[in-house]
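User: Hey, quick favor. My workstation is busy. Could you predict this chain's structure for me?
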Amino acid sequence: MSDLLDRMSGLSASQRQLLEKVLREKAAARRAAGRIRPRTAEGPVALSFAQQRIWLVDRMQPGSPAYNLPIALRLSGPLDVRALRRALTEIVRRHEALRTVFGESGGEPVQVVHPPAPHALPVVELALPAEARERELLRLAAEDAGRPFRLDRGPLLRSTLLRLGAREHAVLFTMHHVVGDGWSMGVLIREVTELYTAFAAGLPSPLPELDVQYADFALWQREHLSGARLEEMLGFWRHRLEGAPPVLELPTDRPRPPVADPRGAQHATRLGADTVRALKDLTRREGATLFMTLLAGWQAVLGRWAGQDDVVVGSPVAGRTAVQVEPLIGMFVNTLVLRTDLSGDLTARALLARVREGVLEAQGHQDLPFERLVEELAPERSLRHTPLFQVLFALENTQDETLRLGELEMDAIVSAAETTKYDLEMSLSEDEEGIMVQVGYRAGLFEAATAARMTGHFEAILAAMAADPDRRLAEVDLMDAAERERVLAAWNDTAREYPPLPAHLLFAEQAARTPAAVAVLSAAGALTYAELDARAEALAARLRALGVGPEVPVGLCVERTPELVAGVLGIWKAGGAYVPLDPAYPAERLALVARDAALRVVVASRGTAELVPEFGGEVVLCDAQGEHDGVEGAGAVAGCSLFPVPCSLAYVIYTSGSTGTPKGVHVQHGSLSNLLHAARETFGVGAGDVVPVLSSSAFDIWLFETLLPLSVGAAVRLVERERVMDPAGLVAEVADATVLHAVPALMRQIVRETAESAEPRLAGLRRLFVGGEAVPPELLGEMRAVFPSAGAYVTYGPTEAAVLACAYRVPSAGAVEGHRIGTPLGNVRVYVCDAAG
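Assistant: No problem, here it is.
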């Protein structure tokens, strides 16, 4: 113990006391556990806790390759195949775990050990040109690594010899995790080396018989983990993990499927020797270990990516606390759950102190099997992700060495892992050149570029930690120059030259081109473009007479009728800015808006005038008799001087107030005009389209639903509020729609009502828009299935950005990805920021 403490120079008194306590507890635990004794009874044996969890996973996902442990070795030199086969047969005889299968007895899983038998070592000839041979070698290695096992049949170790040439071979080993672990693979290779060397020379086995077998350990573990010791460990972990987040919500490239996809891929990079030296200096100064320092950096990156201050990862430990099991092949590895609090404005030094304390405490309670911990905490089980943590972190301190089989040289063949049990698996191994970093990731969740970015951010934060441990981590810029250029400039290369025409001038020009075309459809009938323009111009004249002009806010309290559309256009033609007062809103809300906006004029109808709150100004009835008499459409020329400049106010929309008092968002004409031009360019809405208007005028998306079609010669269909709330009636009323926008909840009702109908419905739809809140991928899949000929978009934009800022085009085939905001529209720039901006 004193040797280890001496190596941990820099420990404070409290840290040294904590480490001494951990080491004393581990030594006492070994003494208290006593020796493992060989079992005396023959027959089935209960599983260890680790085996039981893997067995249960296999029952839920039979044949999954996620728990396969493969290794491929290249053998150079003269090979004695008989000696190799004999060595493998002897290893299987020595280690009962390799002769074990898993059955059931009394409804419980049990280990059944088969008697020794010759080990199969099939030989495959690869008589191919060199380049093709290497490709075939890697293909066969990947194929063998992914081939499933039957736990109830075995064998659970398979070996294949590939003959590449007279003096070149490769041997493939794949073991199921239920009978082995990474340490076991090392035991296997060491014993193959010693046994082959002896047998090839005509000598007997040099290996001593094993004192105990894995089944003996399984029995001992279940007896050992009981009573007060078990309760003490459970108490620690219950307290340690109380309130921990069940899932680390990393932003994935694809939605998490209902059942976790085991397909994996890898990204590898290297921390250079200079970086590693700087990290070791930091580690030494802070009285930590290199593992703690690297873990601190990784958890800081995960926290930044997930936007979480509470980060939980898992880390494997050998689990061989009893000396007797060190030479055994078997499933001993345990997993520590390492939780770190990232809250507060932490420096690297402060974070490392938290990580160090957490790791030391966890290591002091590492004897509790992870499986027993899961059983105790009973988190909600899901096939979508692993329990307690979804990211694994491991540091290997072993040095690579060239192994020999007699006269043969043996080297590992590195191939990318094709399966993974976790969302992310970071594995680091130190050598003379630095630290190799390998990140395995679920290919169904992440793209290769994302894994590369995340690894780059890990390198960046480690460099910052080493350079200045007192720097606040929130200030560390994780992006390199290329990524910064891509995120800030390339993705925002959206500059366009749009005419600076306000929305009502776009409408007036369209009315001049197609005066007889239908502009508005409603329960009251149809209005042409000329008729709608005339109503708007008549209202504008009355408003101008009341002093309405640029920057003057005008309330608009009208039901979903043609007068509502004419009201917006008329207010703009007068030069004013409209402020929606939805008649369906509570009186208190309308009064707040009228007061806050300092309204002097409110446009209403006979049916809504009584709903207008007291505001000290004048109410103009838009449906008063004689309003339209003698007024001709202003067209594209009349009243031109009254059209406001792009920087003048177009409207004031009030937020919902869900986080406090509603606030008025002021939007200029230029911003709204830009939206209409960008939407025309992006979405392809045009003359001949019919667009239902389903939103309240108090939401800015109403402008998208109404003004986009009216700026291109299409028709809008105004749908009454009551009909919007009746899915069957709504689908019937908008039967002629070619373009449709709805919030997710309403879109789901429309899709399902259409799908369940016995008759074809909404057959003319060619564009679908959904937005306003997070859109689940399942809904996008349903939209695509029910309306296969309609191009679907997810729209996104805060009220302050003039209705929409981004759009995501749902692919017509392939995976449907949800929770996307898409790419920015013309002249829009989008920045994704963290909590610190």
